[in-house]
Batch of 3 targets.
Target 1
Amino acid sequence: EIPPVSEVDARNALLGLVTEHCCWGRSAARHMSIGKILSSSAFHYEIQTFTEKRETSWAFMPHGGGEIDGPRCGPAPRPWDIPADPSDLFRSEMKVLQVPHTASVKTCHRCRGAGSLLCQECHGKGWTRCLSCHGDGWGSDSAGNKERCFFCQSSTHGRGRQCNAKGRVACPPCDSYGQIRCYISLTITWKANTSEHIVAKCSSLPEDLIRQVSGQVVYEEEGPRIPPLNTFADPTINLASAQLVLNHNRQWPDQRILAQRQQVRMVPVTEVHYTWKRRTGKFFLYGYEHKVYAPDYPQTCCWGCSIL
């Protein structure tokens, strides 16, 4: 049942919109003559399909010793045979798992088993030339007098900061162990895929506005697979449901559908006609919070600020 909107409600809602715009004049909202008030409703249909996708790829990590779960421990399971469940239905998330019995130890491809790399800052020397005096050890003060370099104190070079004067740095891929553990990584992605359709009897009201406000849920259904609507009061919703359900069942052939749900919300819409200074127009109230859409409000220019 659509709640009725009185003339006072409509005027107060419009005044609330005007106060949000510093350049809009209030005179029109206060003194306009309100005529017809037409109540209707818009329907917001939404379908969600919760899918699961599994992808495999090679990965590696540093190997510092310990047991290896390799082919000797048994055959590797297929991606869809590995047990894994989402935390909640219709909540997007991702998990990365190691496929059992696929690990092996190899020499690090970056350092070739050395565990360290040549320092790129000092090029293996363990020190760098002073950038202030360019290795001279001396500089000049403001008066042009020769003085000891403030930065290197005439040592002409400084310790390599990245390598701590050792000339080599730890190898990132193997974390200085010289070996890496290679395995097959399984990435599981759960995603809530959403489609929607909005039916508004008033074509002047943008659909995006209906999506943003509250309404009343008049139909909802959830299950492993849901049939399209065919008995809803508005045939346009039935047609949209049939098309979107069909699309969702075909759209992700490489994924598994775990659950589906659909919902229809009814959003109240009120069309208010007015006259002000022999000029006619209309504005709209939508949602239970009485949001206002007034595209042709007569006082939207800056001169309206002074008209109270």
Note: The helical segments are 7-19, 27-31, 207-212, 235-250.
Target 2
Amino acid sequence: MGVTLDLSRATKPAAPVKPNLCGLTRKGLVETLIAADVVPAPKARMRANQMWRWIHHYGVTDFEAMTDIAKETRAVLAEAFSLARPEIVERQVSKDGTRKWLIRMAPGIEVETVYIPDVGRAGALCVSSQVGCTLNCTFCHTGTQALVRNLTAAEIVAQVQVARDDLEEWPSPKEDRRLSNIVFMGMGEPLYNLDNVADAIDIIADGEGIAISRRRITVSTSGVVPELEALGNRTQAMLAISLHATNDPLRDVLVPLNKKYPIAQLIEGIRAYPGLSNARRVTFEYVMLKGVNDSPAEAHALLKLLKGVPAKINLIPFNPWPGTDYVCSDWGAIETFAAILNRAGYASPIRTPRGRDILAACGQLKSESEKVRASVRRKAATPPEVLDSPAA
């Protein structure tokens, strides 16, 4: 008896994923073209320079747009490589102009990126360096999520490209930019992913591409002291420190990494940061927690701690999240704290909470959007009669 197999519904093997060229450094781009044997080695550097401007200055996502490259070569490149952007799962715009994108880098790998407009056309993009976080800072909602993995340099650069697509800012303008600054203050600890962060900064700062000055790129760390010098030497980026306390017992609670690298060791590392000067000050971030770290005595202790360090101090009103025991300091307490710092000569702006209505404020990234989307999915999966019942 013969047996006939119906293969019409058989699952076809997934097409191989083409390497994406958007996140390669200049050196990496040259090496990749040579290794794939799509460009002769003697011409690889010249071809890479042409492609670099198309990818990072003009923001193209199709090799056919590279009109100064022969059509036959463009076809070969398109067959071997990709310039595709990652999937935008969700886009939200706050009433204050803040924009937030939930970006899917790969199945199960999602990060949130936030654009914060400033006065005029300028604005900062807050990028993530990891999916999740290991630091467990007790005031930060993002820190309640387990680390999934580091982001690649390509995935970090992709966040900038997605934002510039949305802001319609290609080709790269020299002046009057809407996206003028980059801050590594999203999900994760950048210094635990320094290689990829450094490569991403090299790409973002390249003068023939996106061309955002290294002095307009700030990397925020909770205090991974052994990597501070390497960060400065490799990136020449501005440094920000997630401080939040002036003594070890309190910082051990707020920022558990302090148990490994206590405040005295952290301050010593900051003083040695390459390029630190009055023109290149370190920014200290200080979240204002009612009854925890917001007293005048704490302000004076902060002045004593930072004496002699070229510094700016950002005071951040706490952004509450479900389940937290912390409360934002009263506005009067924040203003009193700021006045003490200002009288001592430190710039200490009070950071206006931005994007709270779309869960894009400091410390609110990723987890809340996951909750909201999960709730929507649950409601969509619930039969209408259940939703309409008195018990629903």
Note: The CA atoms of residues 38 and 218 lie 37 Å apart.
Target 3
Amino acid sequence: MKIRITTDSAADISQDLCEKYNIIVIPLYVIIDGVSYKDRFEITVDQLFAAMERNGPFPTTSAISEHDFAKLFSSLSDGETEIIHLSISSMISACYRNALNAARNFPNVHVIDSKLISSGITMLAIRAAEMIEEGMDVNAICEELERLIIRTDLSLVLDTLKAVRKGGRVSTLQALGAELFQFKPMIVMKNGEFDVTRKYRGKSEKTHKEYITSWLKDRTDIDLSRIILAHNFRNPARIEPCKELVQSLQPFQEMLIQEVGCTISCHGGPDAFGMIFFQKPAESI
């Protein structure tokens, strides 16, 4: 039996990685001025940010429907293919529930709640593809993915709370206070939900340096095989000092740079930056 990996566009996985690891992406929807666009395929992040700056309804997102999932699963179900679908966290999107409902008609489909967003899902998808190459069967891969979800360390720093406020995730008073004092929240994914663990103050470059240093320096629990740096910097060159600082603190064997797509950017706003890696298994620390 063949095994295929699918995920949703909230994974922010680049086209190059999709082609390298044979991963299929199904899009969520971004809604601007009442018009629905397929994330990744019909709208760019630059277009989204331009819409955010205009007066009028703030852009929103919509989950993938059961019908869309059923079409995807049907197109891949040839009687010889097992499908592992990695979903954005069920705690923040209906995508997991809709994928699970659609999969009831496809016994070859295994839907996994990543409990993550963005490049956290990419980390899992890449490792799943590697396990396929290693010859593991679908059940063993799914079991290992569940273990890896627990070990995934995903954190990010937002540059502004405007998008979060517009989405109703913080109050206007909280957001205005953060902007007034230039607070930039650090968010960690815990059990599928967002947890604000720290607030930085100052300009972005200073904030990112403090965030990287405080999160990586002297840690001994990090699996150094791979790290993903995820961002939606409007000036892409800003990633370079971040890369250099990360590598100076921890000798990662592979560093991937991934751009945050429209779904996540719609809720996090521009100029966000995050780091994603696996922690070592508890027994090896």
Note: Residues 152-284 form a domain with the Hypothetical Protein Tm841; Chain: A;domain 3 fold (CATH 3.30.1180.10).
